[in-house]
């Protein structure tokens, strides 16, 4: 039986109970950072209602092709070291809503996991929609045979986000998914004009949650208009803006993931 | 043209060909059966106006807006306001309304909403969870069942405005809502977005969803629209409107643009404290913007009512 994930070394899920905290952003920047460290990375976007990944790589006009082993992922670069799969590539009209109930979503997710010919990858990052429902249950169950490395949970500092991410931690525990750590996104904003730092979305919730839950805190990523702009334009933020506010934190997250996997193999 | 998910033609009309929901509609698994519909209609008979708060995108401020809208409308003590939170996986409303830890009570006439004020009642799955760590890990059908229960078994009483806060997306919960609420008259949907294209691309889908299920769109609110530094007063576009923001999208899609709300740390703070932004920061630009938008929604609902009465 065909096993399209046989060549994938490490599977990492990016989760959050909360919407809009930056799962796709973190998935994208983690992929770019790992790529710049010489790794081959794939991103599987299982957000069927709001697939953000294609645009973040400027690939939104691409289509997906079939090969003998299934679907060929969309390659971002000439060197074919970053590949993507998303329902965004399958939609004829991008503004059409995918109004599917659970069973149909589950079926497509199973296909995405089994039928994409990823080839050899160091990392497969799975970007998810917010919540703890059909997509998440199906994704974790379908990935179980491939023993994912674990999940990165993304939150913003304020209580309302942390509240949902606590539930996501329970989800991970219930489904036996290891938590690699918590990332706190949108941590603060440093005014580019006067350098005043404002905690627009409150402060400290991510680190406190990590402590409370006994999981690693992977770092705080500040708000960075240059990062938002890069994502809008599908640019490589890690390559183009190494001096920007969010860069150090994003690079640090990738480094911790790399350290974690090299520890594993030694 | 979609015949409507609870109509007799659901799944069978020519327009249904190619619709992802076709099979489900054709099997009648969609809408409430006539007995259920009658039950819902009876229960929700006292609801004068129903407004859904939607977005294709997560984290743009639906719950924040719903909470503000509820407080804003309830400021008129003569009005009875109800806030229903159908985000089953991520119920934010209890915290935002200062009702964390509250439980739901049963009475002879059904579940009682939890009251923030005498004229402002709230219902959320959050009230059914015993611990803040409890996760609701349900698949679609079970979520739909709870939404039906919320609409059928909560004793809302006479309500001037029922506000329904939703989770992001266009899936089970949204279909269920539209189908179950078809027994009642929905004034329309308020759609929330942030300025950047990453949000707008999801919001366009939501607008198309509304059109497909024939849900009127009251208008779009652009949240997190710019940030004015409290120290130097310069504005930064943290979430840049690279494709013209919500205003341009509304022009293109012929949808009403209700207004912009800036980023303001006071918003997050009030939400975390469970207090009304409108009371906590009455003079902030964010409050002013929300008040203007709320007024426009009120005007829309009043016009609607007037037109309905004229028809009768």
- Helix fraction of chain A, binned, reads 25-40%
The chain pair forming the largest interface, with residue counts per chain, is:
A-B, 64 and 67 residues
Q: Evaluate the radius of gyration of chain B.
A: 19 Å
* Helix run count of chain B: 11
- What is the strand tally of chain A? 12
Largest sheet of chain B: 8 strands, mixed
CATH architecture annotation name of the largest domain in chain B: 3-Layer(aba) Sandwich
Second rung of CATH, namely the architecture of chain A: 3-Layer(aba) Sandwich
Strand order of the largest sheet of chain A: 5-6-2-7-1-8-9-12
Low-confidence stretches of chain A at least 5 residues in length (pLDDT < 50)?
A: none
* CATH-defined topology of the largest domain in chain B: Rossmann fold
Helix content of chain B: 25-40%
* CATH C-level class of the largest domain in chain B: Alpha Beta
Outline the low-pLDDT stretches of chain B.
none
* Coarse morphology of chain B: globular
How many angstroms does the end-to-end distance of chain B come to? 27 Å
Q: Count the DSSP helices of chain A.
A: 9
How does the helix and strand content of chain A classify structurally?
Answer: alpha/beta
Task: Walk me through the structure.
The complex is a heterodimer of chains A (266) and B (312). Chain A is built from 9 helices and 12 strands. In chain A, helix 3 (102-115) packs parallel to helix 4 (134-143) and helix 5 (159-174) packs parallel to helix 6 (205-213). Chain A is globular, with a radius of gyration of 18 Å. Chain A is α/β, with parallel strands linked by helices and 266 residues long. In chain A, strand 5 and strand 6 (82-86) form a beta hairpin. The longest helix of chain A is centred in the last third of the chain and has 19 residues, at 247-265. Chain A is 37% helix and 20% strand. In chain A, the strands form 3 sheets. Chain A has an 8-stranded mixed beta sheet with strand order 5-6-2-7-1-8-9-12, with helices on both faces. In chain A, strands 3-4 form a two-stranded antiparallel ribbon. Chain A has one domain: Rossmann fold, CATH 3.40.50.300. Chain B is of the alpha/beta class and 312 residues long. Chain B has 2 domains: 1-30, no CATH class; 32-310, Rossmann fold. Chain B contains 11 helices and 12 strands. In chain B, the strands form 3 sheets. An 8-stranded mixed beta sheet of chain B has the order 5-6-2-7-1-8-9-12, with helices on both faces. In chain B, strand 8, helix 7 (197-212) and strand 9 (217-222) form a beta-alpha-beta unit. The longest helix of chain B has 27 residues, at 285-311. The radius of gyration of chain B is 19 Å and the shape is globular. Chains A and B meet through helix 3, helix 4, helix 5 and helix 7 of A and helix 5, helix 6, helix 7 and helix 9 of B.
